Amino acid sequence: MPNTHSDAAVVLGDRVREQRLKLGLTLEDLASLSQMHWTSVGKIERGQVHPSVESLVRLATALNADPGVFVTGLTAAMYGKRVHGLTAAEFIRQRDAENLDDAS
Question: What's the pTM?
Fold first, then answer.
C-alpha cells in the first residue's frame, strides 16, 4: 500500500469515506458530485494526500456536511515533526521573558 501523507490525512480520509458509505455513494458518485476526479477522491480517502480547502469544501458540500466535521480534532502534531512545538501564546511568553532578562 502506498505511503500516507500524515496521520491527519488518514483521519480526514476515513471521515470522508465513512460519510460517503453512510450515504450509499460510490467513489465515482462522490467524485462527480464534488466535480473532482475519482482517483483524487480515492487518494484523499486513503490518506495519501491532504485535500486543499477547496477540495474539502467540495467534498463536504457533496456529502451534505459541514467541512469542519472532517477536520475537528486534527492537530499540527498529526502532520509530523515540527521545527518547534510552540503555540503563538507560548512563543510570546518566552519572548517576553527573554526581553525581561535582557532588560535586567
Answer: 0.80
